[in-house]
Design a protein that fits this description.
alpha/beta; Transcription Regulator spoIIAA; 2 domains; two-stranded antiparallel sheet; elongated
Length: 508
Protein backbone atom coordinates (compact mmCIF):
# COMPACT_ATOMS: atom_id res chain seq x y z
CA UNK A 1 0.00 0.00 0.00
CA UNK A 2 2.59 2.58 1.08
CA UNK A 3 5.08 1.50 -1.60
CA UNK A 4 2.56 1.85 -4.42
CA UNK A 5 1.34 5.22 -3.15
CA UNK A 6 4.69 6.89 -2.35
CA UNK A 7 6.66 5.45 -5.26
CA UNK A 8 4.16 6.82 -7.77
CA UNK A 9 5.28 10.38 -6.96
CA UNK A 10 8.98 9.81 -7.67
CA UNK A 11 9.45 7.26 -10.44
CA UNK A 12 10.48 8.40 -13.90
CA UNK A 13 7.94 5.91 -15.24
CA UNK A 14 4.40 7.25 -15.07
CA UNK A 15 2.90 3.77 -14.85
CA UNK A 16 5.33 1.71 -12.74
CA UNK A 17 3.38 -0.09 -10.04
CA UNK A 18 5.59 -0.75 -7.00
CA UNK A 19 4.51 -3.73 -4.93
CA UNK A 20 5.81 -6.66 -2.90
CA UNK A 21 6.81 -8.82 -5.87
CA UNK A 22 7.06 -12.60 -5.60
CA UNK A 23 10.81 -12.62 -6.27
CA UNK A 24 11.51 -10.06 -3.56
CA UNK A 25 9.14 -11.81 -1.15
CA UNK A 26 11.09 -15.05 -1.55
CA UNK A 27 14.39 -13.28 -0.93
CA UNK A 28 12.91 -11.77 2.23
CA UNK A 29 11.61 -15.18 3.31
CA UNK A 30 15.12 -16.65 3.06
CA UNK A 31 16.68 -14.08 5.44
CA UNK A 32 17.23 -15.79 8.84
CA UNK A 33 16.76 -12.60 10.87
CA UNK A 34 13.30 -12.16 9.38
CA UNK A 35 12.07 -15.75 9.69
CA UNK A 36 13.76 -16.97 12.86
CA UNK A 37 14.69 -13.88 14.85
CA UNK A 38 13.21 -13.14 18.30
CA UNK A 39 11.38 -10.13 16.85
CA UNK A 40 11.01 -10.91 13.12
CA UNK A 41 8.94 -7.82 12.32
CA UNK A 42 11.71 -5.41 13.27
CA UNK A 43 14.30 -6.88 10.83
CA UNK A 44 11.57 -7.04 8.18
CA UNK A 45 10.95 -3.30 8.39
CA UNK A 46 14.67 -2.51 8.68
CA UNK A 47 15.39 -4.64 5.60
CA UNK A 48 12.90 -2.61 3.55
CA UNK A 49 14.40 0.69 4.73
CA UNK A 50 17.99 -0.41 4.02
CA UNK A 51 16.98 -1.72 0.59
CA UNK A 52 15.40 1.66 -0.10
CA UNK A 53 18.59 3.47 0.91
CA UNK A 54 20.67 1.34 -1.50
CA UNK A 55 18.17 1.86 -4.32
CA UNK A 56 18.08 5.60 -3.70
CA UNK A 57 21.88 5.80 -3.75
CA UNK A 58 21.95 3.84 -7.03
CA UNK A 59 19.48 6.28 -8.54
CA UNK A 60 21.28 9.40 -7.33
CA UNK A 61 24.58 8.05 -8.68
CA UNK A 62 22.92 7.49 -12.09
CA UNK A 63 23.66 3.76 -12.06
CA UNK A 64 20.69 2.91 -14.24
CA UNK A 65 22.97 2.20 -17.17
CA UNK A 66 24.64 -0.63 -15.23
CA UNK A 67 21.63 -2.93 -15.62
CA UNK A 68 22.85 -3.71 -19.13
CA UNK A 69 25.78 -5.59 -17.60
CA UNK A 70 23.50 -8.14 -15.95
CA UNK A 71 23.09 -11.06 -18.38
CA UNK A 72 19.63 -12.12 -19.42
CA UNK A 73 20.67 -15.70 -18.62
CA UNK A 74 21.07 -14.81 -14.92
CA UNK A 75 17.65 -13.19 -14.69
CA UNK A 76 16.00 -15.99 -16.68
CA UNK A 77 17.44 -18.64 -14.37
CA UNK A 78 16.54 -16.61 -11.28
CA UNK A 79 12.98 -15.69 -12.30
CA UNK A 80 12.11 -19.27 -13.26
CA UNK A 81 13.62 -20.58 -10.03
CA UNK A 82 11.48 -18.07 -8.14
CA UNK A 83 8.39 -19.30 -9.99
CA UNK A 84 9.29 -22.89 -9.10
CA UNK A 85 9.82 -21.96 -5.45
CA UNK A 86 6.51 -20.10 -5.33
CA UNK A 87 4.70 -23.26 -6.42
CA UNK A 88 6.58 -25.56 -4.05
CA UNK A 89 6.21 -23.09 -1.20
CA UNK A 90 2.41 -23.34 -1.27
CA UNK A 91 2.20 -27.13 -0.95
CA UNK A 92 2.00 -27.10 2.86
CA UNK A 93 -1.02 -24.77 2.89
CA UNK A 94 -2.45 -26.58 -0.14
CA UNK A 95 -2.38 -29.96 1.63
CA UNK A 96 -2.19 -28.99 5.33
CA UNK A 97 0.85 -31.18 5.74
CA UNK A 98 3.77 -29.60 7.60
CA UNK A 99 6.75 -30.81 5.62
CA UNK A 100 10.31 -30.73 6.95
CA UNK A 101 13.60 -30.21 5.16
CA UNK A 102 16.49 -27.83 4.65
CA UNK A 103 15.01 -26.30 1.49
CA UNK A 104 11.92 -26.35 -0.70
CA UNK A 105 13.11 -29.38 -2.68
CA UNK A 106 13.67 -31.42 0.48
CA UNK A 107 10.29 -30.40 1.87
CA UNK A 108 8.55 -31.38 -1.36
CA UNK A 109 10.21 -34.80 -1.27
CA UNK A 110 9.09 -35.18 2.34
CA UNK A 111 5.50 -34.39 1.27
CA UNK A 112 5.63 -36.96 -1.52
CA UNK A 113 6.76 -39.60 0.98
CA UNK A 114 3.78 -38.79 3.24
CA UNK A 115 0.86 -38.36 0.87
CA UNK A 116 -1.31 -40.39 3.25
CA UNK A 117 -1.19 -37.45 5.68
CA UNK A 118 -2.65 -34.94 3.20
CA UNK A 119 -5.86 -33.29 4.51
CA UNK A 120 -8.39 -33.99 1.74
CA UNK A 121 -10.86 -31.13 2.51
CA UNK A 122 -7.96 -28.66 2.37
CA UNK A 123 -6.72 -30.15 -0.89
CA UNK A 124 -10.19 -29.99 -2.46
CA UNK A 125 -10.63 -26.31 -1.52
CA UNK A 126 -7.26 -25.51 -3.09
CA UNK A 127 -8.08 -27.38 -6.30
CA UNK A 128 -11.49 -25.67 -6.45
CA UNK A 129 -9.77 -22.28 -6.20
CA UNK A 130 -7.49 -23.03 -9.15
CA UNK A 131 -10.40 -24.27 -11.27
CA UNK A 132 -12.49 -21.19 -10.45
CA UNK A 133 -9.65 -18.78 -11.23
CA UNK A 134 -8.92 -20.36 -14.61
CA UNK A 135 -12.63 -20.50 -15.46
CA UNK A 136 -13.81 -17.07 -14.28
CA UNK A 137 -10.91 -15.23 -15.90
CA UNK A 138 -12.24 -16.37 -19.26
CA UNK A 139 -15.60 -14.73 -18.59
CA UNK A 140 -16.51 -11.04 -18.63
CA UNK A 141 -15.12 -10.79 -15.09
CA UNK A 142 -11.54 -11.12 -16.45
CA UNK A 143 -9.01 -10.16 -13.73
CA UNK A 144 -11.82 -9.58 -11.22
CA UNK A 145 -12.47 -13.32 -11.51
CA UNK A 146 -9.56 -13.90 -9.11
CA UNK A 147 -11.37 -12.03 -6.34
CA UNK A 148 -14.65 -13.82 -7.03
CA UNK A 149 -12.89 -17.19 -7.06
CA UNK A 150 -11.28 -16.52 -3.68
CA UNK A 151 -14.57 -15.45 -2.13
CA UNK A 152 -16.53 -18.40 -3.53
CA UNK A 153 -13.91 -20.98 -2.56
CA UNK A 154 -13.69 -19.53 0.97
CA UNK A 155 -17.49 -19.64 1.34
CA UNK A 156 -17.45 -23.32 0.47
CA UNK A 157 -15.57 -24.09 3.69
CA UNK A 158 -18.38 -23.21 6.19
CA UNK A 159 -21.17 -24.21 3.79
CA UNK A 160 -19.86 -27.75 3.41
CA UNK A 161 -18.67 -27.96 6.97
CA UNK A 162 -15.11 -28.69 5.94
CA UNK A 163 -13.57 -29.13 9.35
CA UNK A 164 -9.88 -28.57 9.82
CA UNK A 165 -9.39 -26.13 6.93
CA UNK A 166 -7.13 -23.34 8.22
CA UNK A 167 -8.30 -19.75 7.76
CA UNK A 168 -6.16 -16.61 7.58
CA UNK A 169 -7.37 -15.49 11.01
CA UNK A 170 -6.02 -18.75 12.45
CA UNK A 171 -2.54 -17.72 11.31
CA UNK A 172 -2.41 -13.97 11.94
CA UNK A 173 -4.49 -11.05 13.13
CA UNK A 174 -5.59 -8.83 10.24
CA UNK A 175 -5.66 -5.15 11.29
CA UNK A 176 -8.54 -2.87 10.38
CA UNK A 177 -6.53 0.33 10.78
CA UNK A 178 -3.64 1.94 8.94
CA UNK A 179 -0.07 1.37 10.19
CA UNK A 180 1.81 3.99 12.14
CA UNK A 181 5.43 4.92 11.40
CA UNK A 182 8.01 2.92 13.34
CA UNK A 183 11.79 3.31 13.12
CA UNK A 184 13.71 0.06 13.83
CA UNK A 185 16.78 0.32 16.08
CA UNK A 186 20.03 1.02 14.25
CA UNK A 187 21.64 -2.11 15.71
CA UNK A 188 19.49 -4.26 13.39
CA UNK A 189 20.79 -2.77 10.13
CA UNK A 190 24.42 -4.06 9.88
CA UNK A 191 23.40 -7.72 9.73
CA UNK A 192 21.01 -7.03 6.86
CA UNK A 193 23.44 -5.44 4.41
CA UNK A 194 23.93 -8.50 2.15
CA UNK A 195 20.20 -9.37 1.94
CA UNK A 196 19.45 -5.71 1.25
CA UNK A 197 21.99 -5.65 -1.59
CA UNK A 198 20.41 -8.77 -3.09
CA UNK A 199 16.95 -7.22 -2.77
CA UNK A 200 18.25 -4.05 -4.37
CA UNK A 201 19.59 -6.01 -7.31
CA UNK A 202 16.39 -8.03 -7.78
CA UNK A 203 14.14 -5.00 -7.41
CA UNK A 204 16.14 -2.83 -9.78
CA UNK A 205 16.34 -5.55 -12.42
CA UNK A 206 12.59 -6.12 -12.28
CA UNK A 207 12.04 -2.38 -12.47
CA UNK A 208 14.42 -2.13 -15.42
CA UNK A 209 12.17 -4.52 -17.31
CA UNK A 210 9.35 -2.01 -16.93
CA UNK A 211 11.57 0.94 -17.82
CA UNK A 212 12.68 -0.70 -21.06
CA UNK A 213 9.27 -2.00 -22.16
CA UNK A 214 6.53 0.45 -21.16
CA UNK A 215 6.82 4.05 -22.45
CA UNK A 216 5.40 7.11 -20.75
CA UNK A 217 2.30 8.91 -22.11
CA UNK A 218 4.53 11.17 -24.24
CA UNK A 219 5.94 8.10 -26.04
CA UNK A 220 9.39 8.37 -24.47
CA UNK A 221 10.88 5.59 -22.38
CA UNK A 222 11.57 6.43 -18.71
CA UNK A 223 15.00 6.92 -17.19
CA UNK A 224 16.21 3.83 -15.29
CA UNK A 225 18.02 5.93 -12.67
CA UNK A 226 14.85 7.92 -12.04
CA UNK A 227 12.94 4.69 -11.50
CA UNK A 228 15.67 3.60 -9.06
CA UNK A 229 14.97 6.73 -7.03
CA UNK A 230 11.22 6.06 -7.01
CA UNK A 231 11.71 2.48 -5.84
CA UNK A 232 14.15 3.64 -3.19
CA UNK A 233 11.68 6.14 -1.75
CA UNK A 234 8.91 3.52 -1.88
CA UNK A 235 10.99 1.03 0.12
CA UNK A 236 12.01 3.57 2.73
CA UNK A 237 8.39 4.66 3.23
CA UNK A 238 7.16 1.06 3.20
CA UNK A 239 9.66 0.03 5.89
CA UNK A 240 8.97 3.10 7.97
CA UNK A 241 5.24 2.25 7.98
CA UNK A 242 5.89 -1.38 8.99
CA UNK A 243 5.88 -2.86 5.49
CA UNK A 244 8.06 -5.27 3.55
CA UNK A 245 10.49 -4.59 0.69
CA UNK A 246 8.85 -3.63 -2.60
CA UNK A 247 9.85 -3.24 -6.23
CA UNK A 248 8.52 -2.51 -9.69
CA UNK A 249 6.07 -5.25 -10.72
CA UNK A 250 5.87 -5.86 -14.47
CA UNK A 251 2.60 -7.80 -14.21
CA UNK A 252 0.96 -5.18 -11.99
CA UNK A 253 2.18 -2.38 -14.24
CA UNK A 254 0.80 -4.16 -17.29
CA UNK A 255 -2.52 -4.54 -15.44
CA UNK A 256 -2.58 -0.81 -14.65
CA UNK A 257 -1.86 0.11 -18.27
CA UNK A 258 -4.38 -2.41 -19.56
CA UNK A 259 -7.04 -0.98 -17.25
CA UNK A 260 -6.71 2.38 -18.99
CA UNK A 261 -4.19 4.32 -16.89
CA UNK A 262 -3.24 7.68 -18.40
CA UNK A 263 -0.92 9.14 -15.75
CA UNK A 264 0.88 8.36 -12.50
CA UNK A 265 -2.34 9.22 -10.66
CA UNK A 266 -3.49 5.64 -11.41
CA UNK A 267 -1.01 4.21 -8.89
CA UNK A 268 -1.62 7.04 -6.43
CA UNK A 269 -5.33 6.23 -6.44
CA UNK A 270 -4.52 2.49 -6.17
CA UNK A 271 -2.70 3.18 -2.91
CA UNK A 272 -5.69 5.13 -1.61
CA UNK A 273 -8.06 2.31 -2.55
CA UNK A 274 -5.88 -0.22 -0.72
CA UNK A 275 -5.95 1.96 2.39
CA UNK A 276 -9.74 2.19 2.25
CA UNK A 277 -10.01 -1.57 1.75
CA UNK A 278 -7.97 -2.18 4.91
CA UNK A 279 -10.07 0.20 6.99
CA UNK A 280 -13.46 -0.94 5.68
CA UNK A 281 -12.93 -4.63 4.91
CA UNK A 282 -9.86 -5.69 6.86
CA UNK A 283 -11.84 -7.86 9.27
CA UNK A 284 -13.26 -9.93 6.41
CA UNK A 285 -9.83 -10.92 5.11
CA UNK A 286 -9.41 -13.26 8.06
CA UNK A 287 -12.23 -15.45 6.71
CA UNK A 288 -10.24 -16.41 3.59
CA UNK A 289 -9.11 -20.04 3.67
CA UNK A 290 -5.36 -20.67 3.50
CA UNK A 291 -5.66 -23.28 0.70
CA UNK A 292 -7.46 -20.57 -1.30
CA UNK A 293 -4.39 -18.33 -1.02
CA UNK A 294 -2.17 -21.31 -1.80
CA UNK A 295 -4.18 -22.08 -4.95
CA UNK A 296 -3.95 -18.45 -6.06
CA UNK A 297 -0.17 -18.39 -5.59
CA UNK A 298 0.27 -21.68 -7.42
CA UNK A 299 -1.48 -20.10 -10.41
CA UNK A 300 0.77 -17.05 -10.05
CA UNK A 301 3.83 -19.31 -9.87
CA UNK A 302 2.96 -21.16 -13.08
CA UNK A 303 2.34 -17.86 -14.85
CA UNK A 304 5.71 -16.57 -13.66
CA UNK A 305 7.50 -19.38 -15.49
CA UNK A 306 9.05 -18.12 -18.74
CA UNK A 307 9.48 -21.13 -21.07
CA UNK A 308 9.97 -18.90 -24.12
CA UNK A 309 12.88 -17.10 -22.44
CA UNK A 310 14.37 -20.43 -21.37
CA UNK A 311 14.30 -21.68 -24.96
CA UNK A 312 15.88 -18.47 -26.25
CA UNK A 313 18.72 -18.59 -23.73
CA UNK A 314 19.26 -22.31 -24.29
CA UNK A 315 19.66 -21.80 -28.03
CA UNK A 316 22.21 -19.02 -27.51
CA UNK A 317 25.12 -21.24 -26.58
CA UNK A 318 26.88 -23.30 -23.91
CA UNK A 319 28.01 -20.34 -21.81
CA UNK A 320 24.49 -18.93 -21.53
CA UNK A 321 23.13 -22.40 -20.81
CA UNK A 322 25.62 -22.84 -17.98
CA UNK A 323 24.89 -19.44 -16.43
CA UNK A 324 21.13 -19.95 -16.53
CA UNK A 325 21.25 -23.53 -15.24
CA UNK A 326 23.63 -22.81 -12.36
CA UNK A 327 21.67 -19.72 -11.32
CA UNK A 328 18.46 -21.78 -11.37
CA UNK A 329 19.96 -24.61 -9.29
CA UNK A 330 21.64 -22.22 -6.86
CA UNK A 331 18.33 -20.44 -6.25
CA UNK A 332 16.68 -23.77 -5.41
CA UNK A 333 19.24 -24.90 -2.84
CA UNK A 334 20.80 -21.80 -1.26
CA UNK A 335 19.28 -18.54 0.06
CA UNK A 336 18.11 -16.37 -2.82
CA UNK A 337 20.19 -13.35 -1.84
CA UNK A 338 23.35 -15.42 -2.34
CA UNK A 339 22.01 -17.16 -5.45
CA UNK A 340 21.54 -13.80 -7.19
CA UNK A 341 25.04 -12.61 -6.36
CA UNK A 342 26.47 -16.01 -7.34
CA UNK A 343 24.72 -15.86 -10.71
CA UNK A 344 26.10 -12.40 -11.45
CA UNK A 345 29.63 -13.39 -10.38
CA UNK A 346 29.45 -16.55 -12.47
CA UNK A 347 28.27 -14.60 -15.51
CA UNK A 348 31.16 -12.15 -15.16
CA UNK A 349 33.72 -14.95 -14.87
CA UNK A 350 32.32 -16.86 -17.83
CA UNK A 351 32.18 -13.68 -19.90
CA UNK A 352 35.84 -12.95 -19.15
CA UNK A 353 36.77 -16.53 -20.06
CA UNK A 354 34.71 -16.41 -23.24
CA UNK A 355 36.06 -13.04 -24.40
CA UNK A 356 39.66 -13.98 -23.68
CA UNK A 357 39.37 -17.03 -25.93
CA UNK A 358 37.71 -15.09 -28.74
CA UNK A 359 40.86 -13.09 -29.52
CA UNK A 360 42.21 -13.96 -32.96
CA UNK A 361 45.33 -12.60 -34.65
CA UNK A 362 45.36 -12.46 -38.46
CA UNK A 363 48.08 -11.54 -40.97
CA UNK A 364 47.45 -8.97 -43.70
CA UNK A 365 49.13 -8.64 -47.07
CA UNK A 366 48.64 -5.40 -48.95
CA UNK A 367 49.54 -5.15 -52.61
CA UNK A 368 49.76 -1.83 -54.50
CA UNK A 369 46.24 -0.57 -55.14
CA UNK A 370 44.69 -3.75 -53.71
CA UNK A 371 42.52 -4.55 -50.76
CA UNK A 372 44.24 -6.33 -47.84
CA UNK A 373 44.32 -10.13 -48.09
CA UNK A 374 43.80 -11.82 -44.74
CA UNK A 375 45.33 -15.15 -43.68
CA UNK A 376 46.70 -16.95 -40.65
CA UNK A 377 49.93 -15.44 -39.34
CA UNK A 378 53.20 -17.26 -40.12
CA UNK A 379 54.63 -19.53 -37.45
CA UNK A 380 57.87 -17.53 -37.46
CA UNK A 381 58.70 -13.97 -38.45
CA UNK A 382 60.23 -14.14 -41.97
CA UNK A 383 63.52 -12.24 -42.48
CA UNK A 384 63.77 -9.11 -44.62
CA UNK A 385 59.98 -8.81 -44.83
CA UNK A 386 57.12 -6.75 -43.43
CA UNK A 387 54.58 -8.78 -41.44
CA UNK A 388 51.30 -7.04 -40.72
CA UNK A 389 49.26 -8.41 -37.81
CA UNK A 390 45.64 -7.52 -37.03
CA UNK A 391 44.19 -8.65 -33.66
CA UNK A 392 40.41 -9.14 -33.48
CA UNK A 393 38.85 -8.94 -30.04
CA UNK A 394 39.54 -7.27 -26.74
CA UNK A 395 43.13 -6.98 -25.53
CA UNK A 396 42.28 -6.93 -21.82
CA UNK A 397 44.45 -8.75 -19.30
CA UNK A 398 42.86 -12.22 -19.61
CA UNK A 399 43.33 -12.17 -23.40
CA UNK A 400 47.01 -11.22 -23.26
CA UNK A 401 48.31 -14.82 -23.02
CA UNK A 402 46.07 -15.83 -25.93
CA UNK A 403 47.43 -12.91 -27.96
CA UNK A 404 51.02 -13.78 -27.10
CA UNK A 405 50.54 -17.41 -28.15
CA UNK A 406 49.34 -16.36 -31.62
CA UNK A 407 52.26 -14.04 -32.39
CA UNK A 408 54.79 -15.36 -34.95
CA UNK A 409 57.86 -16.73 -33.22
CA UNK A 410 61.06 -14.70 -33.34
CA UNK A 411 63.89 -17.10 -34.32
CA UNK A 412 67.60 -16.78 -35.11
CA UNK A 413 66.66 -16.63 -38.78
CA UNK A 414 64.58 -13.51 -38.15
CA UNK A 415 66.89 -10.77 -39.41
CA UNK A 416 66.09 -7.24 -40.57
CA UNK A 417 62.34 -7.91 -40.31
CA UNK A 418 59.52 -5.61 -39.28
CA UNK A 419 56.31 -6.66 -37.56
CA UNK A 420 53.52 -4.08 -37.79
CA UNK A 421 50.79 -4.49 -35.19
CA UNK A 422 47.57 -2.69 -36.11
CA UNK A 423 45.74 -1.49 -32.99
CA UNK A 424 43.07 0.80 -34.40
CA UNK A 425 39.96 0.63 -32.23
CA UNK A 426 41.83 -0.61 -29.15
CA UNK A 427 41.13 2.43 -26.99
CA UNK A 428 42.50 1.01 -23.74
CA UNK A 429 45.35 -1.47 -23.35
CA UNK A 430 46.23 -2.84 -19.93
CA UNK A 431 49.58 -3.42 -18.29
CA UNK A 432 49.45 -7.19 -18.99
CA UNK A 433 49.17 -6.57 -22.73
CA UNK A 434 51.88 -3.91 -22.60
CA UNK A 435 54.18 -6.40 -20.88
CA UNK A 436 53.65 -8.85 -23.77
CA UNK A 437 54.30 -6.03 -26.23
CA UNK A 438 57.55 -5.04 -24.52
CA UNK A 439 58.85 -8.62 -24.48
CA UNK A 440 58.05 -9.11 -28.16
CA UNK A 441 59.68 -5.81 -29.12
CA UNK A 442 62.85 -6.81 -27.25
CA UNK A 443 62.92 -10.21 -28.96
CA UNK A 444 62.75 -8.53 -32.37
CA UNK A 445 65.41 -6.01 -31.39
CA UNK A 446 67.79 -8.82 -30.42
CA UNK A 447 67.52 -10.15 -34.00
CA UNK A 448 68.13 -6.73 -35.58
CA UNK A 449 64.43 -6.36 -36.31
CA UNK A 450 61.78 -4.04 -35.01
CA UNK A 451 58.14 -3.75 -33.94
CA UNK A 452 55.90 -0.98 -35.29
CA UNK A 453 52.48 0.03 -33.99
CA UNK A 454 49.90 1.44 -36.42
CA UNK A 455 46.58 3.09 -35.69
CA UNK A 456 47.30 3.80 -32.03
CA UNK A 457 44.33 5.49 -30.33
CA UNK A 458 45.03 8.64 -28.24
CA UNK A 459 44.57 7.08 -24.79
CA UNK A 460 46.51 3.95 -25.72
CA UNK A 461 49.34 6.21 -26.88
CA UNK A 462 49.30 7.97 -23.51
CA UNK A 463 49.49 4.58 -21.76
CA UNK A 464 52.53 3.35 -23.68
CA UNK A 465 54.19 6.72 -23.20
CA UNK A 466 53.60 6.86 -19.43
CA UNK A 467 54.84 3.31 -18.92
CA UNK A 468 58.09 3.96 -20.82
CA UNK A 469 57.29 1.38 -23.50
CA UNK A 470 57.37 4.11 -26.13
CA UNK A 471 61.12 4.43 -25.55
CA UNK A 472 61.53 0.67 -26.01
CA UNK A 473 59.65 0.60 -29.30
CA UNK A 474 60.83 3.99 -30.48
CA UNK A 475 58.63 6.97 -31.13
CA UNK A 476 59.47 6.82 -34.85
CA UNK A 477 57.89 3.34 -34.95
CA UNK A 478 54.49 4.42 -33.62
CA UNK A 479 51.86 5.78 -36.02
CA UNK A 480 48.80 7.30 -34.32
CA UNK A 481 45.30 6.75 -35.68
CA UNK A 482 43.84 9.47 -37.90
CA UNK A 483 40.48 10.15 -39.53
CA UNK A 484 41.61 8.34 -42.64
CA UNK A 485 41.03 4.64 -42.04
CA UNK A 486 44.18 2.71 -42.95
CA UNK A 487 46.33 5.81 -43.38
CA UNK A 488 48.47 5.03 -40.32
CA UNK A 489 48.97 1.45 -41.53
CA UNK A 490 50.12 2.60 -44.98
CA UNK A 491 52.53 5.05 -43.36
CA UNK A 492 53.93 2.23 -41.22
CA UNK A 493 54.32 -0.08 -44.24
CA UNK A 494 56.18 2.61 -46.17
CA UNK A 495 58.50 3.30 -43.22
CA UNK A 496 59.11 -0.43 -42.69
CA UNK A 497 59.95 -1.10 -46.34
CA UNK A 498 62.29 1.90 -46.39
CA UNK A 499 64.07 0.65 -43.25
CA UNK A 500 64.43 -2.92 -44.59
CA UNK A 501 65.80 -1.62 -47.91
CA UNK A 502 68.49 0.30 -46.04
CA UNK A 503 69.76 -2.76 -44.13
CA UNK A 504 72.91 -4.68 -45.19
CA UNK A 505 72.14 -7.63 -47.44
CA UNK A 506 68.76 -6.27 -48.45
CA UNK A 507 67.41 -7.40 -51.84
CA UNK A 508 67.49 -4.38 -54.18
Amino acid sequence: MMGTFSGAFFTSSAFMSIQATSAMALVVASVPQVTAGPTPNTPLFALAILTGVFMLIAGLLKLGSLVRFVPNAVMTGFVNAVAFLIILGQLDDFTRYSSVGANRIARTLDLLRNLDQVHLPTLMVGILTIVLILTLEKTSLKSLGIVVAMVVASLVVPLLGADGVVLVRDVANIPSSLPRPLMPPLSVFPGLIIPALALTFVGLMQGAGITQSIPNPDGRYPDASGDFIGQGVANMVSGLFQGTAVGGSLSATALVVGAGARSRFANISAGVVMALAIVLFGRYVGAIAMPVLAGLLIVVGFRTLKPAQIRMVWRTGAVQQGVMSLTFLAALFIPLQYAVLLGVALAVLLYVFQQSNKLVVKAWEIGPGEYPVESDPPTAVPPHQVTILMPYGSLFYAAAPVFSAQLPEVTHATQHAVVILTLRGQTDVGSTFLKVLTRYANQLHEQDSKLMLAGIEPYALIQIERTGILRTIGRENVFPASEGVGMALLQAVEAAETWIAAQPGAIP
